[in-house]
């Protein structure tokens, strides 16, 4: 969360909360557009396209805003494809990068003309069975042990990763693709997520260019584009540095230029599938204190829980927490907790914060991506509303909070029953 956004939000927070109630996620239009401009500037000398990862912030208002800035979309499910299409994306505006992909999903991606990323040979087999192998395909590559030096990867180790085509099977698969009419091939690789250094992305690029060399030598194939996925991190902790996007842009441009001179073939275009970097720092979860509790620890109970932001509970992710107006108060060590019947329903543990009382605002920073979209309805604790802080200073609701009607909606259905006579003999 930028200091500018924090300052602007603090000035209107009581009025906004009085109108809309708490809790809510609020996103900063100005900050998001500035990040889009930063991408454009960093890659002004490189043929590139950013495909925003819809899973990060699947709100139609936000997606239309990003489409207006020229971004495409990275999708991995049927609803995400629908959202991208509703935002105006057509054809290769959409990268369909999925895994364990079903035939139904592939058929939907084909209808939209999306750029399909083949994550496994079975995905290609399904395209062949459908009878509609696109002329352009992307192949996601798992580097085996080649990417190990960048550190722990969410993609998994070579022997246990569920993502990507193993490098030793890539040439054979691309040869099959050529036999089925594929004329334009791209390569995809993402070594991990949340990196604050750009070295892992250069390592991904180097590994992809190595595979491009192999494919050119073996099949005469010129790789048209490389997709470096998402993974650009944001400084969740105040002590962390902001990712050097201009440095990444310069380094990628230089690497591709050297590669082009050395091999005498045109350099590939560069694609990204960022989500967190584009919107993550420009969202805040606004909550109120509903209880102060003293037990083995001091607890600040707020009116949101892990249904609104589950990253801290899911894998111990850090989100900065502040108390507006608390600068002059004494500090105390507290856990900031929600109301679910789970002891890990905590936004912060043993965090030093200004002393709070019931009714105070508490801000959970950097919830502009992978926050509400990861929510769930366990315990009947439902997901909150989303607001947008516009450049002109207005604030509008862009998603209402879930209610009991939503919670019970799937219990309203037409009866469906198999009679005993319809079941196999001996089943009953």
Structure commentary:
There is one protein chain. The chain is of the alpha/beta class. The chain folds into 2 domains: 252 residues, Alpha-Beta Barrel (TIM Barrel), CATH 3.20.20.10; 123 residues, Lyase, Ornithine Decarboxylase, Chain A, domain 1, CATH 2.40.37.10. It contains 12 helices and 18 strands. The strands form 2 sheets. Strands 1, 11, 12, 13, 14, 15, 16, 17 and 18 form a 9-stranded mixed sheet that branches. A hairpin with a 5-residue loop joins strand 17 and strand 18. The longest helix is centred in the middle third of the chain and has 21 residues. It is globular and about 70 Å long. The model has no long low-confidence stretch (mean pLDDT 93).
Describe the protein's topology:
Elements: H1 3-20, E1 24-28, H2 29-42, E2 48-53, H3 60-68, E3 72-75, H4 78-86, E4 94-97, H5 103-112, E5 115-118, H6 121-130, E6 136-142, E7 165-166, H7 170-179, E8 184-188, H8 199-219, E9 223-227, H9 245-263, E10 269-272, H10 276-279, E11 283-294, E12 298-302, H11 311-315, E13 321-322, E14 331-337, E15 346-354, E16 361-365, E17 385-389, E18 395-399, H12 404-407
Parallel strand pairs: 1-17, 2-3, 2-10, 3-4, 4-5, 5-6, 6-7, 6-8, 8-9, 9-10, 12-14
Antiparallel strand pairs: 1-11, 11-12, 11-16, 13-16, 14-15, 17-18
Helix pairs in contact: 2-9, 7-8, 8-9
Percent of residues in helices comes to 25-40%
CATH class of the largest domain: Alpha Beta
Extended strand count: 18
As a whole number of angstroms, the C-alpha radius of gyration is 24 Å
For the record, the CATH architecture of the largest domain stands as: Alpha-Beta Barrel
Q: Any idea what the CATH superfamily of the largest domain is called? A: Alanine racemase
Mean pLDDT: 93
